[in-house]
Design brief:
about 280 residues; alpha+beta; 7 helices; globular
Length: about 280
């Protein structure tokens, strides 16, 4: 296991503007079913690398004020995933392959989708295999899944997006995140105008022994939300994108106020009453 190469990967990632990098061994995915296991895509791989870039807080400003939605779509979502992060991952893949190791980039797709094709051979899962990026980010030691069902990092809370790299380089894995970002305050559920978040009987998610409690979320209601929720742009039946939604913006404000994230700001994000559209069903 080459720790010197790990340092080189981290140094290269920093130079190209990547904010979050975590590593996980194949062993951390041994209990993941083949249809969602990244090692089904590259069986000889030894390491998963999760690569993240932050969603700048200012990209959410127009949605918080209810006056501009388009620019978040670009800087916080479409361009961030398709261009800024994709180019950074491509450059990191090139660096890894320049050192003689194969590196397979994986774009985020809805992991809840079933097979979309027919297996090409006995014993192989059907295409397409879509890894669970939340699981992988936890397995790579980058944070936890919060009560609101979104991945939270200790630096940015929910404000990041990830791509994945599989490599046959054996790189020392990151320790699992042992702290807690989500404090179960319930601001996500309280602020949801549609009552889509039920904290009464949370689901337990276990990733490599790290157990997290997640509220039961009615994603059909989320899809009808007009308060910053976006449809899944990869597939209409995938989970909606709730990072800019009122529920998560309220979570973000709470984490900022309680100083539970590392990215600090001079001024609070929310300074006036929030707007909302829809009937509160709670």
């Amino acid at each position: 296991m080459d720790n010197h190469f790990k340092a080189e990967v981290l140094s290269a990632a920093k130079k190209i503007g990547i904010d979050l990098v975590g590593f996980a061994s194949k062993a951390r995915f041994e209990n993941v079913d083949p249809q969602h296991n990244p090692f089904s895509i590259f069986p000889e791989a030894k390491t998963v690398i999760m690569v993240g870039k932050r969603i700048c807080r200012g990209t959410l400003r127009g949605i918080e004020e209810g006056t501009n939605f388009t620019d978040y779509h670009m800087y916080g979502r479409n361009w961030l995933e398709d261009e800024f992060l994709a180019v950074a991952v491509y450059d990191l893949v090139r660096m890894i392959e320049d050192n003689g190791w194969e590196a397979c980039p994986i774009f985020p797709n809805p992991s809840e989708l079933g097979p979309q094709g027919v297996s090409v051979a006995d014993g192989r899962p059907a295409p397409n295999v879509y890894p669970d990026f939340n699981y992988a980010a936890v397995a790579c030691g980058l944070g936890e899944i919060g009560m609101n069902g979104l991945f939270l990092s200790p630096e940015f809370g929910s404000r990041q997006r990830f791509h994945m790299i599989l490599t046959d380089a054996e790189i020392e894995e990151s320790p699992l995140f042992e702290g807690s970002i989500c404090d179960g305050c319930g601001e996500c559920a309280k602020s949801c105008p549609l009552g889509a978040i039920d904290m009464q009987d949370p689901i337990e998610i276990n990733v490599c022994g790290k157990v997290m409690k997640v509220a039961r979320i009615d994603y059909d209601l989320c899809r009808s939300c007009k308060n910053g929720t976006e449809g899944n742009r990869m597939h209409e039946s995938g989970k909606p994108d709730r990072i800019a939604a009122l529920c998560n913006r309220s979570c973000m404000c709470h984490l900022d106020e309680q100083q539970r994230t590392g990215n600090k700001f001079e001024n609070p994000f929310r300074t006036r009453d929030t707007w909302s559209i829809g009937e509160n069903r709670k």
